[in-house]
Amino acid sequence: MSDSAIPTLARLQLISAASRLRNTIVEGTKVKTQNHVVQPMAANSTNVQVLSTTMHSHDLSIEQPAVVAYLQAIEPGKQEIALVHAIQVGITELVARRARARAALRQG
After folding, report:
1. Phi, psi at residue 40, to the nearest 5°?
2. What ranges in 1-108 are assigned the alpha helix state H?
3. Beta partners for residue 50, in sequence order
4. Within a 13 Å sphere around the CA of 85, how many CA atoms are in the beta-carbon half?
5. Residue 93: which of 17, 26, 36 has the closest Cα?
6. Is the CB of residue 14 less than 8 Å from the CB of residue 85?
7. 57 has which bridge partners?
8. CA atoms in the 13 A half-sphere facing the CB of 100
9. pLDDT in tens, the chain (108 residues)
């Protein structure tokens, strides 16, 4: 695969993941939320390691009903890549929201 094809392929994967995220949980569905306080991990924790080109997660536990429901609807052999795609979509959305918020502050 050429380097020029990688961004296009990545965009297609993000679009595909976004479509699955939208279609997994019907809009308006009530999802039970957690009411407990989330404790931050210790500053020297090695559960998440962010390196120069990769991120490693060890012993990850996600107790969010919407996340669990989404992954349960996916074939077990595809759950890991689905989680990666969901993270990509989420980060893309967060970056876009922050950019919109910054632009609104500059105009306001």
Report:
1. -65, 150
2. 5-24, 65-72, 79-107
3. 55
4. 22
5. 17
6. yes
7. 48
8. 6
9. 444 444 444 444 544 544 554 555 555 555 555 555 555 555 666 788 889 999 888 888 889 999 999 999 999 999 999 999 999 999 999 999 999 999 999 997
